Amino acid sequence: MSLLTSLPNVLYNINPGSTDPKMILLKNIWRRGQIVSEYKASISLFTEYIVKNGETPETIALELYDDPFLNWTILIANDIVNYHDQWPRSAVDLEEYVTKKYTNPYAVKQYETTEVKNNAGDVLLSAGKVVPETFSFSYIEGTTPVTLSPKTSVTYYQYEQRLNDKKERIQIIRPDLIQEFVAAYEKVLNRSKTLAVGIANDDISM
Q: For residue range 40-73, what is the model confidence (pLDDT) as tens digits?
């Protein structure tokens, strides 16, 4: 089943003037969002998956569900509407992306704190806070004043790598529940196969 073709249609007015409407036929992506929120409440339906280098929704669906055409369920489960921006890039693609985006991807983008603890093991400063290059941190250890410069540099490449790493942690629908989900999803979609007319987002009936 194609995710896009399965969505209900909506007539949308692209002319700001309501007296002379210009209607185009679109897919009701707002309906998709409603369905996503309905199923997100079912925690037992999902399990975490770490996307391996170069994997796509199709290869994951083939591996887990024995059907590459169930790739759309992976996109749905993670609310992905822009594959290029929201899906993790392979190592090669990330290298190419960063090289094109930045003149010098290995230049310093920002400075971040490193963790500071006192002798008792208490955390006085947590790691990962963005700070100026001149940042320093002072505290009292017993009766002794201590001043440190607890920071580390982060390059543009490292920054993009972090963002990409976060994208690798996705939710998938449990293989033993996938057919049940597909059937239920199609049933919900079929509730609104008729056309709706809207002037703006709020005017579109679900």
A: 666 678 899 999 999 999 999 999 999 999 998 8
CA distance 139 to 205: 59
Cα three-residue angle 83-37-184, rounded to 5 degrees? 90
Residue that the structure tokens 């083939």 belong to = 62
CA-based diameter of the chain, in Å?
Answer: 78
* Cα(69)–Cα(67) distance, integer angstroms: 5
* Sign, CA torsion 88/90/96/98: positive
- Note the Cα 7 to chain centre separation in Å: 21
**Distance (Å, whole) CA 97 – CA 185:** 35
Q: Which two tokens stand for residue 62?
A: 């083939």
CA distance 98 to 94: 6
Task: Identify the H or E element spanning 101.
Answer: helix 91-101
Query: Other CB atoms closer than 10 Å to residue 1's CB: what's the count?
Result: 12
